[in-house]
Every structure is written in structure tokens, then in C-alpha cells.
Amino acid sequence: MQIVSNRYDSFFEAQRAGYDARFSDLAPQDLHSQDATQPFRSIVYRISKEKAFVHHVLRAARDVLQHAARAAAQSSTESLGQLYLIGGKQEGIKTYIRNAEACIGPLVYQQNGSHSTRLAVLQYDQKIIGDSSAPDDRDYHRLRLIGEEDGLQFYSKPGQFGWEKIDAGSQLLASCFPQLFQQSPGRVLDLGCGYGYLSLQVSRYHPSQITATDNNSAALLSCRFNFQFHHIHYGNVIADDCARQITGLFDTVICNPPFHQGFDTRRDITTRFIEAAHSHLDRKGQALFVVNAFIPLEQRAADYFERTELINSNRQFKVLRLTGPKKRG
């Protein structure tokens, strides 16, 4: 069995548990068995949040099962290629089952579980050929220009939250940089960097170093491309979960933490990013956060920082400056 995930935390935990795991943006070479004589004949997929990514997985599953069917035909063995699809009603599982039937094969079994979840088993049908039956994955692997501001161009791709727009919260935070960075921001850590919007904006103010980190493979690919495109040679892009494996202290931490992780509203996700900022911030540094206006970041940050200052706000978002990290335990 092999586990392939586009989330670093899932990959890390699977690898730590002793499984054969890969962290990947689902490139074709990462989805086939390393043993050509033993191709994968069963695929289990818990549907993801982003539609284009789910469609890409369905297309990739079809290719993997097609490869297994061809190998079985050459060896005169029976192919039992199957896709096990798992998801909830509110996540669009019914629609994805129909899409999978169109590009992979018939539904042969389904079972309802708790909390409106459903398991569907689809049998690969080699008579289904061509891309006409495959769902639209928005040309998944292609990086494309999604915005431009004052000479900075931002490239992104499907597979990450908010991939085809400039986030309004990040824009609000970046609008505060001129007053916050009258001197160089020094060593910068971008927590949850996405495609690198905030890192690119902070690069205008001559930092000595930028370390951008994210849990999502598509975000990391996009951010690396943007760094290369803008010649940010002093920037590093690192796969990690809330910077828990990154060492060293930084003069500036910038962060637009995700409010949603997967399909669950994670009440503690903001706290995890606050903890990460606290762990990595130099005693004289500053952590700059932008969050939804209703998130009580001030109360949560009080356990980790001496001072919390409201820098800017509107009806949707607020920008906070955290300083004076409390003594680390």
C-alpha cells in the first residue's frame, strides 16, 4: 500500500507511522507503483474541498486503473481495478460519484455512513476512453497569471484555497507594510504562504531573508515559481505544517491563517499559527496577522505575547501586530 497526499501534515504522519508515503501535487510519476509488475488496482480517495483538485484526482485515478488493466491484459490475468470514493452529502459526493461513473466506470457498491458520509465503489471500465468523459480539472498543473499589483505579478494554480484571486485580507495586511517597514523587516517568516502574495509584497522592503512555508503542495509549487520569476534569491520555500520543523528565529512573521482546513471549521487553527509565530519570533521582532474580524485573536494571543496592537481593520478583516513573545517553556 502507498499513501499519496498533497498535504504535508498527512504525509508526515503517514511516514512517521511507517507507511510508504509520498508528498506530491499528484504528478503522474508519483501515482504509479514503483514495481511495474505490480500496478495499483485499487484506489481509495477521501474527496477534497476544491472542485478542480477532485476532478484532477478522478482523471488521475482513471489513468492509474487504465495502466493496471493494460498490465493485466498483457499477463492474461483478470483486472479488478476499483476506485473507493468517500465523502459527505454537503461535500458534493453525489455529483462526484456521477462524474466518476462517466470517466471511470459503473457504480458497483455504495454504503451510507454516519454524518451523511457515503462510500462508493466504482469498477474501472476500459471501454471508456478519451478526455471527453473526464471532468474539468481547470488544466490542473498549469501555472497562470491571476493578478498584478504595482509591477508584481502573481502566478497560481488549482489545488490550493483561493488560488485564482488575490485575497482581500492579505491585501489589507500588505497595505500596512509601508508604515510597519520603515526599516528593513530583516529575517521574514511567511506562515501559510499560499502562492506567495505576502512574501512578494514584503520583498519590496529589502528583507535579508524570506522563509515561506505551507502545508499544501500546490501552494509551494506556486510560491517557488513566483520567487524565481521575481528573482527572490534570498527566499526559501519549505514544506511544513505550521513551521514545526523550521528552526531559528525571525525578525518578522507574517501570516494570514486559514479559517477552514479541509471541510471542518477548525477553531484552534488560528491558535496553532499564533503558537508557531511565538516559537519563531525574535524577542525584539513583530508578528503581523490578518484574520476575519470576528476571530478573537487578541484573546488567544495574550497567552503568548506581551502586546497586541490593532493596526487596521474593515468590516471583514483586521490586522494585528504582536510583539514581546513571552518566555518559552
Question: Can you characterise this structure?
Answer:
The longest helix has 24 residues, at 51-74. This protein has 329 residues and is an alpha/beta fold. The two termini are 40 Å apart. The protein has helices spanning 8-16, 51-74, 93-103, 168-175, 177-180, 197-202, 217-229, 269-280, 297-301; strands spanning 2-5, 20-23, 42-46, 82-88, 107-112, 117-123, 144-149, 152-156, 187-191, 209-214, 235-239, 250-255, 260-261, 264-265, 281-292, 305-313, 317-325. It has a 7-stranded mixed sheet with strand order 11-10-9-12-15-17-16. A 4-stranded mixed sheet has the order 3-4-6-5, covered by helices on one side. Residues 261-266 have low confidence and may be disordered. It folds into 2 domains: 26-133, Vaccinia Virus protein VP39 (Rossmann fold, 3-Layer(aba) Sandwich), CATH 3.40.50.150; 144-325, Vaccinia Virus protein VP39 (Rossmann fold, 3-Layer(aba) Sandwich). The radius of gyration is 22 Å and the shape is elongated. β16 (305-313) and β17 form a beta hairpin. α2 packs parallel to α3.
List the defining traits of the structure above.
Rossmann fold, four-stranded mixed β-sheet, seven-stranded mixed β-sheet, 329 residues, 9 helices, 2 domains, single chain, elongated, alpha/beta
